[in-house]
Amino acid sequence: MCLAIPGKISALHENVGVPMAKVDFGGITREACLSYIPDARIGDYVLVHVGFAISKVDEEEAARTYQYLSEMDQLAELHDGEGDSSDEVP
Amino acid sequence: MKYLDEYRDRRVAQKIVDEIKRIVTRPWVLMEVCGGQTHSIVKYGLDCLLPEQIELVHGPGCPVCVTSLEMIDRAHAIARMPGVIFCSFGDMLRVPGSNGDLFKIKSEGGNIRVVYSPLDCLKIARANPGKKVVFFAIGFETTAPANAMSVWQAKEQAIQNFSVLVSHVLVPPAVTGILDSPNNRVQGFLGPGHVCAISGWTEYEPIVERYKVPIVITGFEPIDILQGVLMCVRQLEQGRAELENGYARAVQREGNSTAQKMVDRVFRVCDRAWRGLGVIPQSGYGLAAEFADFDAERIFDVGRIHAVEPAVCMSGAILQGLRKPLDCPAFGKECSPENPLGATMVSAEGACAAYFNYGRHLVSISALAANG
Amino acid sequence: MTCPVSIMQRKNIVMGHGSGGKLSAQLVRDLFLPAFDNGYLRKLDDQAVFQAGSARLAFSTDSFVVTPLFFPGGNIGELAVNGTVNDLAMSGARPLFLSAAFIIEEGLEIDDLSRIVESMARAARAAGVSIVTGDTKVVDKGSADKLFITTSGVGLVPDGVAISASNVRPGDAVIVSGSIADHGMAVMSVRESMEFEGAILSDTAPLYSLVEAMLGAGEIHALRDPTRGGLATSLCEIASSSSVGFEIDSSAVLVREDVKGACEILGLDPLFVANEGKLVAFVAPDSCTAVLQAMRRTPRGSDACVIGRAVNDHRGMVLLKTEIGGTRVLDLPFSEQLPRIC
């Protein structure tokens, strides 16, 4: 449930005092309410659900986790070599 | 699209699957809580890729499925009233009540509008001052802040012809309910990623403590779900039971406090009847007294609603992960997306509907796995 | 494919009956087919082909009720011309003559009607057809949504061309002429509440010149223009008509990035979204390379690609290999896709 799609903030504006943003999704832009992400800036990626930004994408965290996942087979070989199957997830 | 495409990467998916296969030593039953996660699993055929030892059972995290029949009948009664413009998310349009769905009401002359955002209802209300605009405010914690904002703005802008029919549900009480069931088979949970983006995960820590089950907050893309499965299986194989965040790019422990404040202002926690599960105490939101003027349940007198569920439906058991859609004798026969008998078939996110729409009654998982 | 309950058990027609999915099929199967029953209709092609003297003629009709009337990349008029031109072209016929019937709601601005009619004239010239007969009716305000247009058309099927939905054989290559879902999302971009900004244009276009180039390059067994219900619906229908299975690679299906973005936020699957200037071809395996090359040399087929093949297994069923390597079944939806929040 809860379809929320990541998009990039391309512009900021206000609508009857409510902070809004134009968010870019692959080339189309849609308006989203920024009331719940008050510190959002142009260039930030946010998750948008029913026209509201609900969370900012933590880009460093995303990069870190994704790198870990992409290299998982190499880590697995390492662990097999050491005979140790436990692994802390970042 | 950034933060979307890379989470659908075939090679990374295969690496995670290989790692799961490497570490799994015995059967485990996991539940993905959200309907959107169920949808993703079936749409991408994720369960075909997982080793046989992993059984995924589908949770009650589909707000459309669990909206009570009584509430749907109430919504339909309001939608039928003259002078009403009834606004709803697309998901609810085809959910049948005791007498047809919103499409049927539209064919009989009802003014039904599909909306993407609750704020669109306010535009409709301003454009139609002579009509009463009613918004069917469903959803879990994820959607509550958006729905709350529509009520808040209606009050701020003195929009008098707008009201909401609130049918929000909360996830933690449902998870507890499943764990309390004597027949529970679920050993680990893929937690609701977007719900937790709003609410954080503090409410799940006591659940992990009390029931000693791993809960991994999980996203919705294929890589996210596979990662959630991996983290959960790792815990189970290592005998751990912890709360882990498998959706760290979107979720923090405290969640979104700005959103939570608005929700706490506009809504109050209340008991809520879940379709297929019965009344779960303190498991829903209703409007706070301050916003009573916008409560469609108070404004519209629909008379007594007597909703009766078909006896053959086993969606209660399916929502708790005790049975699978294919276990049901009515599946694909008397019960289909065209003629849904109960909660899990009425929405595309429901387990039964997902199975049906993605052809699971036509081809077995093993055949799909062999084809891959 | 499980069959829904009979149409006669319902009291009213609902929107789903016009969506191109299972409900639409049910309406045809249970109401129109038994009433009008004949060999031509039973084939359930998008057009009827029959002998007229020494010539074979193709005959087709289509009605257009799109709202709003004007959308990025076109309007209802162009759709009306290209829609019937393409239905004829899908039998291999050269489209020749069209009729155009207008049902106009009282109060429609004449300027709007004029723009639409001018577009139709341009589209007809571009497609090489003449609009040779027509009709006009005006109904009370409220009895029609501004304008409905019905076009019917006749075309000439060249000798030796035998294209039909029931002709696909195991081994045939499945080729799509370009990106999908452009039209449906262009219309969505101007729908109340769903609006978004961007550069998505309807792909409405006449396809006969593309078909002609393809016919000259190799052996074509079937053609379909995937309009309402999208590519998935066409694949399911052909699988059923020809009694073959399909294996489709979803990564091979071309979707523009911005169209994908629009589908993602509304929760729509591009495979089920309408196209108005694309075709899907089912081509003998030996002809695949030549046909593909011929397509890519034409303006309407420059992005053509192979997306899968027909197989002898799971007859009547379409299997999709997903982006991450899993498999799922593609099935006809009951009615139109709706935007979702879940």
Task: Describe this structure as you would to a colleague.
The complex is a heterotrimer of chains A (90), B (372) and C (342). With 90 residues, chain A is α+β, with helices and mostly antiparallel strands. Chain A has helices spanning 59-70, 72-82, and strands at 5-15, 18-25, 28-33, 45-49, 52-56. With 372 residues, chain B is of the alpha/beta class. Chain B folds into 2 domains: 1-309, Rossmann fold, CATH 3.40.50; 315-371, no CATH class. Chain B has helices spanning 10-23, 35-44, 46-49, 63-66, 69-80, 102-107, 118-127, 144-156, 171-180, 193-199, 205-211, 222-237, 257-266, 296-299, 315-319, 343-346, 351-357, 365-371, and strands spanning 28-34, 54-61, 84-88, 111-114, 132-139, 162-169, 188-192, 215-218, 243-245, 267-274, 278-287. In chain B, the strands form 2 sheets. Chain B has a 6-stranded mixed sheet with strand order 4-3-5-6-11-10, sandwiched between helices. A 5-stranded parallel sheet of chain B has the order 2-1-7-8-9. The longest helix of chain B is centred in the middle third of the chain and has 16 residues, at 222-237. Chain B is globular. By secondary structure, chain C is an alpha+beta fold. Chain C folds into 2 domains: 38-157, 60s Ribosomal Protein L30, Chain: A; 173-330, PurM-like C-terminal domain (Phosphoribosyl-aminoimidazole Synthetase, Chain A, domain 2, Alpha-Beta Complex), CATH 3.90.650.10. Chain C is 29% helix and 25% strand. Chain C has helices at 22-36, 39-42, 76-89, 110-127, 182-188, 208-217, 230-242, 257-266, 288-296; strands spanning 48-52, 55-64, 70-71, 74-75, 94-105, 130-139, 147-157, 173-176, 220-224, 245-249, 280-283, 305-311, 318-321, 327-330. In chain C, helix 3 packs parallel to helix 4 (110-127). The chains are: A alpha+beta (90), B alpha/beta (372), C alpha+beta (342). Chains in contact: A-B, A-C, B-C. The interface between A and B is large, with 41 and 57 residues.
